[in-house]
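G., the chain you wanted modeled:
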Amino acid sequence: MIVEIGAFALVLALALSLAQLVLSTAGRLKRAQVLAGAGEGAALAAFAGLAVAFAALMYAFVTSDFSVANVAANSHSDKPLLYRIAGTWGSHEGSMLLWCLALTGCGAAVAGFGRGLPLGLKALTVAVQGGLGVVFLAYTVLASNPFARLDAPPVQGRSLNPLLQDPALAFHPPMLYLGYVGLSVVFSFAVAALVEGRVDAAWARWVRPWTLGAWSALTVGITLGAFWAYYELGWGGWWFWDPVENASFMPWLAATALLHSAIVTEKRGALAGWTVFLALAAFTFSMLGAFLVRSGVLTSVHAFAVDPTRGTLLLIILGITAGAAFALFAWRAPALKPGGVFAPVSRESALVLNNILLAAATATVLLGTLYPLIREAATGEAISVGPPFFNLTFTPLMAALAILLPAGPLLAWKRADARGVAQRLWVAVLIALACGLAAFALVSPRKAFASAGIALGAWLVVGAFVELAERTRAFRGPIAGTWRRFSGLPRGAWGMSLAHLGLGVFVLGACFETGWKLEAAEAIPVGGRLDVGAYHLVLDQVRGVEGPNYEAERGYLRATRADALVCEPRPERRFYPTGGQTTSEVAICTRGVSHLYVVLGERRPGPEGPVWLVRAYWNPWALLIFIGPAIMALGGLISLSDRRLRMAVGARAEAKG
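Predicted structure as C-alpha cells:
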C-alpha cells in the first residue's frame, strides 16, 4: 500500500509541477499576485509530493519489498541498513527520483524564500522551475518509474553493486545532486531575466547565493566521490579523468566562473551577458552529466545504467531545454546593457581573465570527454582520451589561473596600480620560490614539474593570508585596531579567502602525492616482507572473516619504520555471494597528512605454500587533497551566510535603483 501511495504522489507531483508552470506564467502575464501565489503554492505542494514518493521508495528498500522491481534489482535483505537506505538512490530509477526531489525542492525554496524578488522575475523563475519539473518528472513516470511492480517477486534481491556499498557513496549522490540541481535555480533566474530584459546588479546579487550554495554542495559531492575512488577501487588513485568524473567537474568549473562573473555584474554592472550565458551553461552541463551517466554511451565504473533508449530521451530533454534557453539568449542578449568601462589593469580585468581561463578549461574537459563519441560516430573507430591529454591541456590553464588568483582581490575596481599589488605580494613570491626550490633540490631534482606545483600551491596559500592581512591592515598600527578590523571582516571576504586557501592546499597535496608517490607490489607468504620507501610490511597471517553479506580474507600486517611499529594494516579481499563479485577493501595508515596505503590481492599457489599479492603505496600529503576542497566548501558556506547576500538586501538595491 505504501508503494502505491508513493507512485500516486509521484504522479501528483507531476500534475502540480504542470500547475506551477501554468499558474506562475499566468501570474507574470497578468501581473496578478494571486495567480503567482497559487503557482508558488503548487511548487511547495510538488516538493511535498516528491518527498512522500521518495520516503515510500526508501521504505520499500528498508523493508526489502522485492515485489518492487527496483528493490529486487538493487537490494538484499542481508545488506546493512545504511546501504539499504543508500540503495534508494543507487540505481537509475532511484537516482532520477532523487534528481526530481532536489529539483522540486529548489522550486519550493525559490517560492518560499524569494520574498524580496520583483513579482515578474519571481513568477517567471518559479514557472521555469515548474517547466523543468514537468520534463524530468514525466521522464521518471513514463520511462524510469521506480515503483514498477514484479508479477513474480523473487525471494531475495540481487543486491547493490559491492563497490557502491560504502559510507562515502551513501552520501556522495545526495550532495552531488544538490549541487547539480541547485544550478537549475540559476538557470531559471537567467531565463527569467532574459524574458524580462533586465540583468543588473540586483539580479546578480539574487543569483549569487543560489550559485554559492550549489557550488559548495557540488564541491563536497565531488570530493566525496574522489575519496571513494581513492580508497574503494583499490588502486590508490583519486582522479582518473573518467568521463563520469568529468561530467561532475564541468558544471563545477562553469559555476566557479559564474561566481566570479556575477561579482563584476553586481559591483560594476559589467559582463551581464556573459554572466547569463554562464548561468545557462552551468545547468546545461549538469543535464549533460545526467545523460552521460545513464545512457551507456561512455563506459565508466560510476555509470548508473546502460540503456540507449532512455539515454536518447535524456538527450532529447537536454536538446529541447538547453536549446530553447540558448535560443532565447541569442535573441535577447544584444539588448543587455554592456555595463561600465574599466582599465586593462583592474579587478574587472583580472576577473575577466579568470573567466576566460575557466571557460577554456571547461571546453578542454568537454572536448576530451566527448571526442571519443564524435570520432566513433564519424569513423567507426573506438578510441579513448586519458590523463595524458588532460594533463597536457588542462593543467597549464589552471596553472595560469593559480598565478593570477592572489593578485585579483588586491586590485582596485576600475583602475589599479600593478606595481603596488606586486609590492604587497613580494613575501608570497619569496616563500613560493623557496618552497619550489627546496622541493627540487632537497627532495628530488627529477621532479621539476611537481616542484613547480609545490611553488604554485605555496603561492596560493600565502597569497590568501596576504589578502586577509591587506583587508585588515595587519601589522600597521596597534594590535587592538587590527583585531577589531579582523573580527569585523565581512563573511563574504572570509569565504573568498578560505576558498583560495583551500585551492592552494589542494594543489600542494596533489603535486606532492603525484610527484613523490612510491609503490611496491610482491607476492609474499605468511611471514614475508614487502618494503615501500622507509616502511617495512610483514604479513603475519591471513584469516577468513564473515561479514553481513560477504565472505572475506583479511590480512594482518605490521608496518615498521626504523624497527619501530607504525601501524597494523588490516586489508581485506571480499567476496559477495549474491552477486558473485570480489572487491578489495584497502587499509590506510595515516601518518600526519600522508598515507601508507595497503591492498591485499588474490591468493596464489607458491613453491612452499600459498602466497598473497600485496600492494603498498606511500602517498605523501595525500590527505591535503581532500582537506583542500573541504576548506573551499566551508568558504562557500561562510560566504553564503553573509547578510549582504540575503534576498532582502537585493530587494533594497532594486528599490533604490
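The radius of gyration is 27 Å.

Shout if anything looks off.
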